[in-house]
Specification:
Number of helices: 10
Number of domains: 2
Structural class: mainly alpha
Distance between the termini: 41 Å
Radius of gyration: 22 Å
Shape: elongated
Number of strands: 2
Strand content: under 5%
Order of helices and strands: HHHEEHHHHHHH
Helix content: 55-70%
Largest sheet: 2 strands, antiparallel
């Protein structure tokens, strides 16, 4: 299925020859097409669908530009841009065949991934992501930093303890900024993993 976002995204890339971020594309599409912000009621599912549609359009465009015009579309996490033949190297040209890149493209080019993913799937993906970035040693350190004795404190307990210590160590109240930032880091990490 041809993605209707291909033409608007190509226009953005043409207007920004040095490239742009996915966030820039997202904001521009939201401004141009109000319905782009009405893909789901759930906020996380909405963001997943917007991201999927953008990435699908980019990978369709990448494939077509390479096959039909011998132009390379560089799709990186924070930078997307068209490369002319003079900017590409042999390694850039084989980038489409790179196994990690190919798997990513295959995922975003499969409309079934868009259609079958629901709120529960997105919540599960986010939980898996959060769990993957939090290491047990970091958790123990965070519990110690917030002076929490429980191994699995509730969100409410974490929030109360953080507020208590934040008042004590806030730089505006004569506290140490480094200690305050450490408290905030510990709070953010524990809240990601906490049960309600």
């Amino acid at each position: 299925m041809k993605n209707p976002l291909i033409a608007p995204i190509l226009s953005m890339l043409k207007a920004r020859p040095h490239g742009l971020k996915e966030f820039d594309i997202l904001k521009s599409l939201q401004a141009q097409f109000p319905e782009f912000s009405q893909l789901a009621d759930d906020t996380n599912l909405q963001l997943f669908r917007q991201h999927f549609l953008i990435m699908n359009a980019l990978y369709q465009l990448q494939s077509r530009l390479w096959q039909e015009d011998n132009l390379m579309l560089s799709i990186e996490a924070t930078h997307i841009r068209l490369l002319t033949t003079q900017h590409t190297t042999t390694s850039d040209n084989t980038n489409l065949n790179n196994s990690a890149e190919a798997k990513l493209a295959a995922y975003y080019l499969d409309w079934n991934e868009y259609e079958k993913t629901d709120e529960t799937d997105v919540a599960r993906l986010l939980k898996s992501f959060y769990k993957g970035i939090c290491h047990p040693g970091d958790r123990r350190t965070a519990l110690k930093t917030l002076k929490l004795a429980e191994d699995n404190p509730s969100k409410n307990s974490i929030k109360q303890q953080y507020r208590k210590l934040a008042q004590q160590y806030h730089p505006d109240r004569g506290g140490d900024q480094e200690t305050f930032i450490s408290l905030r880091e510990a709070y953010e990490q524990l809240m990601l993993q906490a049960q309600s």
